[in-house]
Amino acid sequence: MSNIDPILLLSAIIIVSTPILLAAIGELVVERAGVLNLGVEGMMITGAVCGFVVATMTGSPWLGFAGAALGGALLSMIFGILTQLFLSNQVATGLALTLFGLGLSAVLGQGYIGVKGPVVPDLHLPVLREIPFLGPVLFRHDAMVYIALLIVLGVWLFLNRTRMGRVLRAVGENHDAAHALGYKVVRVRLLAIAFGGACAGLGGAYLSLVRVPQWTEGMTAGAGWIALAIVVFAGWRPGRLVLGAWLFGGATALQLALQASGGVQIPIEYLQMAPYLATILVLVILRAGRAPGSLGRPFHASS
């Protein structure tokens, strides 16, 4: 443990947690609208390959992130159309979306395995980055780290300070009552699903363009499922979502640091299990908030 630099560890926590945070904040909006989309993993891996392919072809990581958001949103619309217009089972459709996304990404990424993508530069903050301790921990990251936090803040403001946010929450709590008041339930839910898909795509692109950075099949490695768990841990509240993402990021960064240091004689398989075990333990110990009343229930316009 003495070989681990605390500054590097804390900085790594923020980097590791960013893709989880992006995917989780999108899923939080989807679930607050009353929809349960278990296809987050599939949308993340699709965003990862779309972002990497676009960034490699254009030489622009920012076009790559845009392509990832678009790819994730388009894939989410398959789920949205099937569940909101054809009223298919949300759980089964979400699981099928994950399997489809994993297969699609493998096909799209065949020619890009081992290819090096464009570098995503750190955001230059000349004064803040020189602050002792806080500078290297908080202010020497790429722009997507701060964009992710701004998205969380924007979602909090949207849900709690805007009329449309209150409409979305009303749809999620009781879609029949919202429909009786004249709100367009299906439209609201489709928009929420598209936003969730775009955020999941951004999270996937962060893995392939920043954290790794290269394309590898199955590189999300369960990140989408962790994002789903963190939404429950957060009680469907954006503020607690950040803490949940940092918790998982901390467990992941710590196990990677322990592997690199070689100072702890623990089998590598146990270290790799640690972040997922930590997430499960937190979910068991802490009581989650109340889920939206209409979560996972199909909406029948005639009802």
From TrEMBL:
<dbReference type="Pfam" id="PF02653">
    <property type="entry name" value="BPD_transp_2"/>
</dbReference>
<keyword id="KW-1133">Transmembrane helix</keyword>
<protein>
    <submittedName>
        <fullName>Putative deoxyribose-specific ABC transporter, permease protein</fullName>
    </submittedName>
</protein>
<feature type="transmembrane region" description="Helical">
    <location>
        <begin position="143"/>
        <end position="159"/>
    </location>
</feature>
<keyword id="KW-0472">Membrane</keyword>
<feature type="transmembrane region" description="Helical">
    <location>
        <begin position="190"/>
        <end position="209"/>
    </location>
</feature>
<dbReference type="InterPro" id="IPR037294">
    <property type="entry name" value="ABC_BtuC-like"/>
</dbReference>
<dbReference type="GO" id="GO:0005886">
    <property type="term" value="C:plasma membrane"/>
</dbReference>
<feature type="transmembrane region" description="Helical">
    <location>
        <begin position="215"/>
        <end position="234"/>
    </location>
</feature>
<keyword id="KW-0812">Transmembrane</keyword>
<feature type="transmembrane region" description="Helical">
    <location>
        <begin position="94"/>
        <end position="113"/>
    </location>
</feature>
<feature type="transmembrane region" description="Helical">
    <location>
        <begin position="6"/>
        <end position="26"/>
    </location>
</feature>
<keyword id="KW-1003">Cell membrane</keyword>
<feature type="transmembrane region" description="Helical">
    <location>
        <begin position="62"/>
        <end position="82"/>
    </location>
</feature>
<feature type="transmembrane region" description="Helical">
    <location>
        <begin position="270"/>
        <end position="289"/>
    </location>
</feature>
<dbReference type="InterPro" id="IPR001851">
    <property type="entry name" value="ABC_transp_permease"/>
</dbReference>
<feature type="transmembrane region" description="Helical">
    <location>
        <begin position="38"/>
        <end position="56"/>
    </location>
</feature>
<dbReference type="GO" id="GO:0022857">
    <property type="term" value="F:transmembrane transporter activity"/>
</dbReference>
<feature type="transmembrane region" description="Helical">
    <location>
        <begin position="241"/>
        <end position="258"/>
    </location>
</feature>
